[in-house]
Amino acid sequence: MSSEERVFTTRLERVRDYEFRVKFDLPSIPDIVMDEPEPLGRGRGPNPSRLLSAAVASCLSSSLIFCLGKARIAVNDLRASVETVTRRNEKGRWRIAALKVKLHPALKPDDIPRSKRCLELFEDFCVVTQSLRKGIDVKVDFETGASATNG
Q1: Distance (Å, rounded) from C-alpha 34 to C-alpha 41?
Q2: Contact 59/127 with Cβ under 8 angstroms?
Q3: Is the N or the C terminus of the chain less surrounded, counting Cβ atoms within 10 Å?
Q4: What is the rounded distance in angstroms from the CA atom of residue 148 to the CA atom of residue 150?
Q5: Coil/strand/helix, residue 137
């Protein structure tokens, strides 16, 4: 690993059916529950598509706030929404086809013209959005092990 590379590990533990407890690598971050919506799961938490949608919106929001802060433009409030479009691909598998993000920063009217530069470049600093746009190298490996049984 180079000094220009950081690695973190996120762990999932199955609770039941399609419900998983997600454990992050920082003790300050509480576990979350993920689950598929009904009828597949019980909807006890967001599913992966919803978390991806939230990650994109959060990353873009943070990038915008950071850029505006560097420009000394106060953001009084910021709301974001993401319309996630899913559709079947050519093999009939569900895929996220589009994410339509709307950011609503509350800026002072005098700051709006000064914010133009940030609005042009903040997206480039969003790790999640730019990674999705470029395509992420995903490698999958698995280890099988005997389940513990009392017999």
Answers
A1: 10
A2: yes
A3: C
A4: 7
A5: coil
What is this structure's pTM? Answer: 0.88
- The two tokens of residue 52 are 């991806």
pLDDT in tens, 16-30: 999 999 999 999 999
Strand partners, 14: 20
Q: Identify the CA nearest to 84 among candidates 94, 93, 97.
A: 97
H/E element, 14: strand 11-16
At residue 69, the 3 state secondary structure works out as helix
CA 87 to CA 98: how far, in whole Å? Answer: 9
Long-range contacts of 74-83 (CB under 8 A, 24+ apart): 74/107, 74/108, 74/111, 75/105, 75/106, 75/107, 76/106, 76/107, 76/108, 77/105, 77/106, 78/103, 78/104, 78/105, 78/106, 79/103, 79/104, 80/104, 81/57, 82/53, 82/54, 82/56, 82/57
The answer to whether 85 touches 98, Cβ cutoff 8 Å, is yes
